[in-house]
Amino acid sequence: MKYEFTVTETQSGQRLDKLLGELLADQTSRSQLQKNGTFWLEVDSEWQKQLFKTKVQAGQNWRIEWEETALNLDNLQPWETNMEILQETDDFVCINKPIGVSVHPSESEQSDQTVVNFLVAKYGNSFSKNFEEASFRPGIVHRLDKTTSGVLLVAKNVSALRFFQSHWGKDTKKTYYALVKGIPPQNGNIKSGILRDPKDRQKMMVTDSPKARPAHTTFERLAESVDGKYSLLKVQIFTGRTHQIRVHLAAIGFAIVGDEKYGGEPAERVFLHAGELQFLDPKNKQKIMVQTEFPEVFLKKFKLNPLK
Which one of 91, 145, 259, 281 is the catalytic residue? Predict the structure, then answer.
């Protein structure tokens, strides 16, 4: 994978490793970059290799190249379980990911009960062979938090994966449902930068720091409780920052129910569901919309009344 950038005045003087930890927080980790990264600085129109902890200066052009540690598919344990298949072709499968299930094993998630383990059980050697030469996570186009349920797109071959990755963002539309405490405005438009919280690296924060990554979230209030305690929101994101919906809603005072990390009241789950995903078909470049059933449990549990 590759990432290029020009150092700004506000970034000048920072160590490269720390700066990349912020710039690439949604794509990889500093530990992965240190193990598998190569760092190039443009000097007199030539690219020269640099150390990971080099201090950067304003105006410098950098090119970062790295390979994510590939999952060893030979050692992946099949997970025989049921997951709802929403749509499937020769190129992709859309899964209704349950809550409490991670998308793939990782250094922090040493589990044999992930979506990838389910895919190995479902497709066996045919799935493994499609990705045995790939240096990225097998088939994973995007991610949902472990605590988030809903539509997850997985490529079934390397060609489709590369197509989805190259078209992700500009040709995708992601819609979520969130249950929040309180009654926010009927419609909301949040454009606030997001940065990893320096006090807790497992959290993100909204900030006006020039180091923050731009993030854009909109919402529409669909239902509210009679007692005025809860609302159901339809949320759309135009960027894909880590914990974007969770941190944006918490920042305006409407934390998601169950999301204690960001100030939500305790509940049996985080009430955030990926309800719709629109993307391009690798075969014919036509738009495809995949939806899950509306999360009625959100309405019933908290006795919400849909708005007219």
Answer: 145
Eight-class DSSP state of 134: -
Euclidean distance between CA atoms 226 and 228, whole angstroms? 5
- Token readout for 140 is 């994973």
Of the candidates 81, 78, 87, 172, the residue with the CA atom closest to the CA atom of residue 128: 78
- Helix, strand, coil in percent for the chain, rounding step 5: 20, 35, 45
Write out pLDDT tens, residues 130-158.
665 554 477 888 889 899 999 999 999 88
Do 81 and 104 belong to one domain?
yes
Residue 145 bears catalytic tag? yes
Report the distance separating Cα 192 and Cα 190, nearest Å.
6
**Confidence label for 128 from pLDDT (cuts 50, 70 and 90):** low
**Tokens (6 digits) for 218:** 């909109």
User: Is residue 306 within 8 Å of residue 292, measured between CB atoms?
Assistant: no
Q: Cβ contacts of residue 306 below 8 Å, gap of 6+?
A: 222, 223, 299
Looking at the structure, tell me whether residues 143 and 265 fall in a common domain: no
181 and 161 inside one domain: no
Task: Clarify whether residues 108 and 188 are in a common domain.
Answer: no
Question: How far is residue 19's CA from residue 58's CA, in Å, rounded to a whole number?
Answer: 13
Range of the domain at 275: 173-306
pTM of the model: 0.75
**Mean residue pLDDT across the chain:** 87
**Using one digit for the tens of pLDDT, what is the confidence trace for 72-85?**
556 678 889 999 99
